[in-house]
Structures are given as C-alpha cells and as structure tokens.
Amino acid sequence: MHKQYQVPFDAPSADGQPSWRSPHHADGAPYGTDTTGVRGGDTIVQDVGRPDSTGHPLNLPYPGCPPIQAVERFFRNYATFSGRASRSEFWWPMLMTGIAETAALGAFDVMSVVGVFSAIQGVLSLALLIPSLAVSVRRLHDINLNGAWLIPFAGLTVLGSALSVMGAMAALLVLFLVPDVVRQGFDFILLGSVITVVAGIAYAVCMAWPSNPDGARFDKPR
C-alpha cells in the first residue's frame, strides 16, 4: 500500500525531507536550470521556456545558431518581444528571408502585371515586418539595451526616406524649370540619404554587437 500511493519524489534527503528535484534536471536537459528550493536547500528546476527542434529554449539566446534553426526560431517567435536573440539568430533570418523575398518578387515581376506585383510585395513586406521587429528587439536585449532603442533607428530611417521623397517630388514637379526649387530638392535628397545611411549603420552595429550577460535581465520564462 505504501508503494502504491507513494508520492513520486526522489529518495529523502539527509534531513528526512523528500527531494523536489524534477526529472528534467540540468544535466539531462538544456532547458532547465537548478535553483535553490524552499525546503532545506533542495534543488528545484525551473522551466525557462519552450525548446526549439534542437532543445534550446526559444526565449534564450542561441550563440552560433545554424541557419535552418535560426529561421525556425525567427518564425516561432513571430511576435515575441521578450527574451534575447544572438547575432546568428538575427543575421541568418535577415539574409535568407531577404534572398527568398527577392527571388519570389523577381519571379512574380516577370509573370504578372505591375498591380499584382505591388500587392504581393506589400503582403510579403507586411508579413515579415512583425517578426523582424521582434527579433531586433530581442537582439537589443542580448546586448543589454532596452527594445525602445529601436524607435530612434526606425524614426530616423522614416525621416530620411521622407526627406528624400520630398526632395525628389519637388524636383520633378517643377520639371527642372525652377533652379532654386531643384537645388532645394536635391539638398533634401542628400540630407535624407545621409540620415538614412547613418541610422542604418548604427542599427547594423547594434545588431552585430557581442552579447552582454547583463542582458539576462530581459529574460521572462514562458
């Protein structure tokens, strides 16, 4: 009877209290971490998140992540803005989705009219926008920066693009017949291009920055 209804704990510890150690201990599972329990210093394992196909938690950085796993984590963390992401988790999806998007759009461009091509381009860009923002925020967390730093990068990029478009429109609307307006239009284009390039370089530097262990403060078990 005792064995039939015995609580499935490990053998009692030295002080006579049952051990609360989970079967998913740190030696056998990469997604568990040992912490001190509340009963006599026993060991308790906390689950730090859902693992990917390789067993690595999705909310923790995976240094040296292979390309396929990086893309998997990119889409499985589609709208996850908490946690951290390593450099390989950011750069591999950016490279591979960029190549795939360019190839797909190139094929549609040959086979379809301009309206369909523009619609498909808009849908693809919108579909990749949220996961791209999410992985960027997690990458900032990994270098111990708040995800809010993404706002000035995006804001400066939008500002630079807007200035460039305004300059181009100013130059085209007057059909190069008013030299002062044309000159101001090119000045806007130059200023917008400089702002966009500077914002892009700063963003790329942050995304390529080495991991900072202090970024663990952004981890949230899921």
Which features characterize this protein?
disordered N terminus, 222 residues, mainly alpha, 2 strands, 5% strand
If you had to describe this structure to a student in words, what would you say it looks like?
With 222 residues, the protein is mostly helical. Helices cover 53% and strands 5% of the residues. The protein has a domain at 143-212. It has helices spanning 67-76, 87-111, 114-142, 150-173, 179-208; strands at 32-36, 43-47. A hairpin with a 6-residue loop joins strand 1 and strand 2. 18% of the residues are buried.
Give a short summary of the structure:
The chain is mainly alpha-helical and 222 residues long. The chain has helices spanning 67-76, 87-111, 114-142, 150-173, 179-208, and strands at residues 32-36, 43-47. Helices cover 53% and strands 5% of the residues.
Q: Give the number of DSSP strands.
A: 2
Distance between the termini: 38 Å
Q: Helical segment tally?
A: 5
Beta-strand fraction estimate: under 5%
Provide mean pLDDT, rounded: 77
- Any idea what the radius of gyration is? 26 Å
Helix content: 40-55%
Strand order of the largest sheet: 1-2
Specify the overall morphology: elongated
Low-confidence stretches: 1-13, 17-47
Helix and strand run: EEHHHHH
**What characterizes the major β-sheet?**
2 strands, antiparallel
SSE class: mainly alpha
